[in-house]
Amino acid sequence: MKNLLLFLSIFVNSSIFSQEPNSTIDLPAEVQNLEEILVSSIRVDKNAPIAFSNVTKDDLAKNNLGQDLPILLNSLTSVVTTSDAGAGVGYTGIRIRGVNAQSTNITINGIPYNDAESLGTFWVDLPDFASSVENLQVQRGVGTSTNGSSAFGASINILTDLISEKSYFETSNSVGSYNTIKNTFKFSTGMLNDYFEFSGRLSKIDSDGYIDRANSDLKSYFLQGTYKKNTTMIKALSFGGHEITYQAWNGIDGATLESDRTYNPSGMYIDQSGNVQFYNNEVDNYKQDHYQLHWSEILNSSFTSNFSFNLTNGLGYYEQYKENDNQDYITRKWLDNQFIVANYSLNYQSEKTSINFGSSYSEYDGDHFGKVIWAQNSSNTEVGDRFYDGNGIKKDFSNYLKTTYQINSNISLYGDIQIRNVKYDTSGSTSDILDFSLNKSYSFFNPKAGLNYAFNSDNNLYFSFARANREPTRSDFENNADIQPEKLNDLELGWNFSKNNFLISTNFYYMQYENQLVLTGSIDDVGNPVRQNSGESHRMGLEIESSFTISNKFSLSANSSFSQNKNKNFVTSLNGELINLGRTNISFSPNLISSINLLYSANKNLDLSLLVKHVGDQYMSNTDSDFSKLDAYSTLDFNLNYNFKNPLFFNEIVLTAVVNNVLGIKYVSNGYYYTYDDTWSNPNSITTIEGAGYYPQATTNYLIGLKFKL
Fold this sequence. Notes:
Mean pLDDT: 92
Number of helices: 6
Structural class: mainly beta
Number of strands: 40
CATH class: Mainly Beta
Radius of gyration: 25 Å
Largest sheet: 22 strands, antiparallel, barrel
CATH architecture: Beta Barrel
Number of domains: 1
Strand content: over 45%
CATH superfamily: TonB-dependent receptor, beta-barrel domain
CATH topology: Maltoporin, Chain A
Distance between the termini: 44 Å
């Protein structure tokens, strides 16, 4: 299968979404200008010298049966996804070009979604959010300037539901493996008095997970009120979620992977009789609410503007059973945070020139504290004690100016400048009860420039250069007080060709880093990845996308990413000495990622598709240790969509079925690696001991759902 995949991927591409590379977003004409103002300043079109993919609501709906948004993007170019619980419900992750999630910039309606302190994106906090996404754009590389922290591997810009001109009510219900159940209800009033529209969604997802006890209890909502008149649109949104997931980030060792791959050690303790037990409330319990206000205005035929305000409140904890020196106690590690954002953009468009100015200010205030809620055999620990207490405040102010100028019918130039200032202050202690006081300030200058040359309407070539800088996270500072911000110079060279039923797009990239914050492979006590500066490093690769319409019933699409991801002079501690290992592979960066999708449209109502996904070998460390190696894997997924024609009592009934990993491959897409020094076996020497943990992914599993729309 691997050789066939490699061969076909060179000639064909894309993804299960059947998106043409660098295609424009198709929105209803009557709302396009006003709705798109929300995201127009941070998105790009086909004339931009940037590699990107567009994904529509219909694309997402083909697989949207309860799995998180990263899983729905699995077939896109250079993408690798993973799931702690093994089946795409609960904690999930996405890596693009091998870059960790903290280096991917996420925005929702132009508002930064990355957590300000960790820079991570916790999709579990917004379960079933894909049901409220109108479209999204994935930009690979640095991409265009955006709001929030800079992108180091990719950015994902999401636009939520558009205004519905007509009223509707729909319910989507699905069931599947591991007792997975999703219930979604959506509605819209349609346009009231030609000016107002109200819409909303309620969702509930439950799943036991593939991994033992890795259950998820997920609730979410999305409410939207819109006023639209002539050249003015005002949107007020409230959305959020409440997740309770049993912890599954501890993984399992290699021996357990072979003998009992669904085993979950989280919550394990020894009772007074010496028997192994599992604490039944070893959970992550977190609630997050977002409030957004957007005012978009078409000022005249050339100028548009948008002002946005956001307030995000989050509150929750990790609950854990602890055993230490014959003392038993249960703790809750709390996070109580608030995130405020204000954005402004002004856009100018003429026949030859496009200019975008944007400004963004955000302020984050997060309290971190731990409480003891139960204790046994502990003379120095009292119930209700706060065993640590800390606070982090982060302020981020950025401005960008970008322009595209069409010199003639063949050549267009692109320029982009961003200035970003970050101030981060902390006080109190860490969860390890260590003093944690910081006062950090950063000023970043991020220029970008590019050229697009169109040979004709079917054939174009582009080149771009971009620089990005990015600050460390709270966890980075906790692990190393001297950690440095990372810098990236990104070169992209691409060629696109489309003719009749055939389309191909190629993109070569060279990403040169200074002090790249690479994953060490280790995780902390709540599953967060540990990072370190790696000095000089680079990522270099070739991305090929293509699609081919074979007949009026069959179409084929695929993508492949061939890359080399190297640290230049990686230094590590080995057997008590610092060793320079020279050129090593960057962790979690496979040299090959490919997918092929075959679509069969039997008729206007029935679509069947097969997706083959291949991810090459990768290392969980930066030392090229065989102990840290994750083997390559290939999976086969099946998808069915049937639209019942003229159903009784309903405007639409859609049956969707997904069978993931049809062949039942036992694979691992993620894990962790660690070392420690053994000084007691031989007092006269130090021996470095290696260890690894694995997150097994589900074997054959299915989801099936029905959507009814009135």
